[in-house]
Amino acid sequence: MQALLTIYNIISMLASALIMLVIIQFIIGLLFAFNVVGRNEFLMSFYDAINRLLDPLFRPIRRFMPNTGTIDFSPLVLILLVNVVLIVLDGIIRGMA
């Protein structure tokens, strides 16, 4: 049982890091969209790296989402899905106790 809790804690920590990356990508995208920051080389390369990391996760979600124009809801859906998976895993582990 302790091993399952340890694995759950590791998965939860990785999920939190993923959610933070999604939020950072969203914020940097807004800063670029509203021209708050200039397109300096460091920020552009950081944003591009995050996009390349998250795009394989967003792509399947975008296939099933309706086209909403300029608003992309796939980051929100990904965050919700990650939280649902964590809740289900927590329920499974608590049910085994």
TrEMBL record:
Classification via InterPro entries: CCB3/YggT
One Pfam match: CCB3_YggT
Keywords: Membrane, Transmembrane, Transmembrane helix
Transmembrane segments: 7-34, 73-93
Protein name: YggT family protein
Taxonomic path: Bacteria, Pseudomonadati, Pseudomonadota, Alphaproteobacteria, Sphingomonadales
